[in-house]
Amino acid sequence: MLLAIIRDTRSKLAMLLSFCFQLEAIVVEMQSGVKGSEQKLNVTTIPHVVAGNDIIAWIANKMKTTVEEAQTFGTMLVAYCYIYPLQNHKKLVMCNDASLYRFQTPYFWPTQKWVAEDSDYAIYLAKRNIRKKGMLEPYEQVHYNHLHEWLNHKWDFIVMQATEQYKAGKERKKPDRVVLDCQERAYWIVNRPPVSVCYTNIFYQQAIMRSKVKSSVSLGALVKYVTTYKNHDPFLAPCLPSNPWQTDNDTYWNLNMRRVEVPTKSRVERWSFSFFELLSDLRGRDDFKIFLKREFSGENLAFWEAAEELKLGTASSMSTKAESIFKTFLAPGAPRWINIDGRTMGLTVKGLDHPHRYVLEAAQTHVFLLMKKDTFFRYLKSPVYKEIQKKAITPEPHNFSPAQLEQNAQNRSAGIHPIILWQQEEEENAKAAAASAPVDVKAMMSKIDRKK
Amino acid sequence: VQRSPLIPEMATQEVQLNETLAHLKTESETLKSKLEEERAKLHDVELHQVAEKVEGLGQFVMKTRRTLKGHGNKVLCMDWCKDKRRIVSSSQDGKVIVWDAFTTNKEHAVTMPCTWVMACAYAPSGCAVACGGLDNKCSVYPLSLDKNENLAAKKKSVAMHTNYLSACSFTNSDMQILTSSGDGTCALWDVESGQLLQSFHGHAADVLCLDLAPSETGNTFVSGGCDKKANVWDMRSGQCIQSFETHESDINSVRYYPSGDAFASGSDDATCRLYDLRADREVAIYSKESIIFGVSSVDFSLSGRLLFGGYNDYTINVWDVLKGTRVSILFGHENRVSTLRVSPDGTAFSTGSWDHTLRVCDDCYFFIGIKYNQNLCTFNFTPCAPDKPPLSLTATHLPKYSNLKKHIYRST
């Protein structure tokens, strides 16, 4: 493909030169190959206008590629200023529809002018200033100001050139002037792209207002984290029974799988480090669910899991999920009604009229904090946790002789493929969902009636 | 220099325009210095001062445990599967390979229709991989248990940028992908429909890397670009919420600290830096006079104590994050290291290089001193230099674990 981009910026220009000539050869061919017509834009009639889908069809045919690839190639031609869009001039893409485009005059091709000169840009902006009586876009105003300072020594010259060009432009016929304006504007959009520089001030204001923490506090927290996890970092403390990469024995991974009956002591200790750790390790989450079941307070976690699924799920499944969550957790009298404050409940229910990915964010955070600040600590003190701590094992460290290590290297186990594990997980989840689904009393009753 | 405009009305217009712009500019300068002031007020201590009471690490000896050969050209990117042993890697010749790094078996291979596949990622379920590069797209390939199945047939085109794809990552599910591109933007996509969910604008040049926050809220990510900026984004609103501009060149890699409260970056200016998100400032620079080549890729060990960096001078440097010193240097690759990731359980790290290979590396450790905590059955280990002789332990210290004694002193 022509577009071998090298990140080294010094080579970028060299590469640009070599592939631009190839692009230009294609563009020249295209100009005679694609049918152009006159189109009305606002009030003026513009000649030699082509439609996006015609260009893409030509490229696909000429290069024997798919429409997709042709569209990408077309977009590159727009990005590098060989073709410019007439409508929506800021979006530099080739659309596969009736969108209108024009070929850029060779005067403005990238190979003609290596660097879009600052003084040329200054003349262009000054000219626009005269014509539109000072109505430059915010980013252009910032550029203008910068150039005014930077090129102040030749500002007389710039103003003179701008006035000359403005006068010359006025002498042209309107259609020609409109075309030239479009071409010039397209050229500068590519070479001086709009940057939201004016939002910088808003950003600074927000940054100042954002709450910050003392270095001693935040750095202290970083150090504390390292200290807490020191014994769990395989680079700082040995894995028990052994690190699979070192001994070619994968017992360590088997002992720490998702659904082991008995976890290791190290793993159970990690669950106590933070609520996030407990939830992230699905085996820990299982244990937490056992505790919640005994307390008859499983709805908070169930809601949190459902909200996660909504947030991270496919766009198409969102409204069905939102509906089911409302029925199960939020509706008055719902079977697993969650106890959140009135304001959050009100906002959430209202948001569910038009569900979007983050509609449950407020409720989810509320429930998460509730569990983090209260339920989690009660879990750590509970008989459930104490039980699993006692049950948990500390594997004996391996002590392989060199001969055994060689054996291990010959017989590395393949383990279970992630796809198979995932299929097993889906089955387990389906079973669990069926088991914990709220009982449909009517169905039960009618079943009993039918039996009678 | 006095300006003398030829047209009088232009003079007044110019003056008016300049006044507004001057006002904007001074406001900008004032706000910037106010922000620096606020940051400085809270800066009461340096990282190495806080780290004074932390034990030193001594030197590490790292060893290559696996070398994966099979790519025909420069390896550009790699990612681990959540199963801690599988890897997906992509290279300049358009090939994407899925390996079981533990057995070194190649399990799947896909040939992309473009060259320079600069980004690849493993799906959280382990059932798919995503990749892209010069095709400006990110495509998802579902994997199959059937070795003979043609994976390209089920390929799904998800992301579409207007310039090359530099990095991609799944969120916590297989259903969403976050991408960064040479077109200066990042974007979040719905995999099933290919719909653009959110786009992130703010970088002034190519975005080269990104990393998702491991925090409980899980709604932010950091990106680094050729504009020398590292930006932190809110995924819901698309807003840039924090920005750091202290590097002197392109930022090639960003990675969150495991707690999510900080992140590290690696740049062409040959330094790695640590940024504290809560204090809103850079807190450490990892550099040495002898290191002059750029960093291509960084990652933390599980506890966050070690920072691994892959460099363009073919080496891997390992830094003590808290003390700021280098604790190990690894040679082995025969060309620049382009990508580096620590495995999901922290047992090893993998590197990919322009020498067409991937390596999985680990450390050999020696320990002296053990404290046996009876309540929790954990051991406290102190790593030491390989040349120090081990202490002998009596049986009373280790009632049940006499083999442990032997294990510790053996070099592996």
TrEMBL record, chain A:
Coiled coil: none annotated. One of its GO terms (biological process) is intracellular signal transduction. Pfam families: DEP, G-gamma, RGS, RGS_DHEX. One of its GO terms (molecular function) is GTPase activator activity. Residues 30-105 form the DEP domain. Keywords: Signal, Signal transduction inhibitor. CDD domains: DEP_RGS7-like (cd04450), GGL (cd00068). Residues 1-25 form the signal peptide. This is Regulator of G protein signaling 9a. It comes from Sparus aurata. The lineage of its organism: Eukaryota, Metazoa, Chordata, Craniata, Vertebrata.
UniProtKB/TrEMBL annotation, chain B:
GO terms for biological process: signal transduction. The keyword Secreted does not apply. Belongs to the WD repeat G protein beta family. Keywords: Repeat, Transducer, WD repeat. The keyword Signal does not apply. Signal peptide: none annotated. May interact with RGS9; this interaction stabilizes both proteins and increases RGS9 GTPase-activating protein (GAP) activity, hence accelerating the deactivation of D(2) dopamine receptor-mediated signaling. WD repeats lie at residues 68-109, 158-199, 200-243, 244-285, 295-329, 330-360. The gene is GNB5. This is Guanine nucleotide binding protein (G protein), beta 5a. SMART domains: WD40 (SM00320).
